[in-house]
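Continuing the batch. This is chain 6 of the set; chains 1 through 5 are on the previous pages. Same settings as before, nothing changed between runs. Recording input and output for traceability.
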Amino acid sequence: MPSLVRAHEDPAWESHVRVRAKEELRRRMRAIRKGLPREARAERARKLGERLLALPETASPKIVAAFVAIHGEVNLAPVLRELRVRGAAVAMPRVDPDEATIVLHEHRDGDPLEESGFGVPEPLPSAPRVDLARVDLVLVPGLAFDPRGFRIGYGKGYYDQLLPTLPHAFRLAVGYDFQLVAEVPELPHDERVQAIVTDARVLRVEDRS
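Output for chain 6:
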């Protein structure tokens, strides 16, 4: 991974190095996750789900923004079923092609999904939109996370755009424990999460704002 030595005299150079470091970490995590056997992935997802559902933030949320697992991500379907039993409404992201940003649509268990141009299952455009101010929990995917709450996604920046629009949502990242690294090379526009749940631990992020 490229050096992350800060070069205060050349911010553009430092930003370039961090972008390269993110790409390398993205590539490495994709490969590791892809190589995880299906049985091991299912067991890890089960353990993660147990930890997630034991948190106070998941005891009685009203609206939960979630995601459909792709490319070996943690399958949250059992978690979402339990959250619905607890009375939560579930919202799923859909990319607005005109604005190149994420919008949230209500998704009930069994509602159809359609594949986006990126190969991501999304709710139908006819599904009701969700009032972003009413979302009280957002489950955030990613390829890598660090103890400061920074994350690396797929490089489109959709969640960095979405998170600031959810003023009352607790930001909870989910991933396998090997996706937790010592430091993610962050950039100025990167948004932090407030906690990270893996199959092995729950990590609360210190407020360093």
